[in-house]
Amino acid sequence: MIANKWGFRTQAEGKYLGIPLISRRPIKADFQHIIDSVRDRISSWGTRNLSLAGRVTLINSVLTSIPIFSLSHTFVPGNVMAEIEKLIRRFLWNGNLTSNAAHLVAWEQVTKPKSAGGLGIHRLEEWRSILVAKLAFKFLNNENTLWVRCFQAKYGNRESIFSTKSLYVKEEKQQYKTLCGGLAMVAPPRLWRTLGLIPTLL
């Protein structure tokens, strides 16, 4: 309606800096390019005779870093992260994506810190929680920035945005719920009480 009134040119949904510009809930297909990037990188290493330690190093330094930019800016569906971790597990135990070697240790144990008996591989779900908390921290401490002002103009002030009641409104956007969940990781307990928060990450 606004475009028709003022004669603005519109276009179909696309991407900006690799981030999908969509008005609906993100789906796996929107992030297929990330999955393909991880798969292509593993395929390029498949002919090398890498040790287990070498594969762990590549996983932590390269593979788990590929989706970080998207995780820090938008809601990435869980099935996207599950698919990426599936590729990482195959690379860890097989060295490639074609053979099917046995997975000798449970993934939950592998992703524990080395001090706890694991290999120190980073879980993408944990990365997402950290980045969401970082986003919530910026929201609390940069109220004059443009994106915070736009967010508050749409959803109200911070007291109403982060109220316990608002966390369960099904009609709200996923970005809104994600930001609300991140606050529980960065807000001090006294702010939970002041704003009516629950100290859990959604």
Short description:
By secondary structure, this protein is mainly α. Helix content is 52%, strand content 3%.
Describe this structure in words.
The protein has 202 residues and is mostly helical. It folds into two domains: 113 residues, no CATH class; 55 residues, no CATH class. The protein has eleven helices and two strands. The protein has a two-stranded antiparallel ribbon with strand order 1-2. Helix 2 runs parallel beside helix 5. The longest helix has 18 residues. It is globular. The C terminus is likely disordered.
Q: Quick one: overall form?
A: globular
Question: What structural category characterises the helix and strand content?
Answer: mainly alpha
Distance between the termini: 35 Å
Q: Tally the helices: what do you get?
A: 11
Keywords summarizing the entry:
single chain, 202 residues, mainly alpha, 2 domains, two-stranded antiparallel ribbon, 52% helix, globular, disordered C terminus
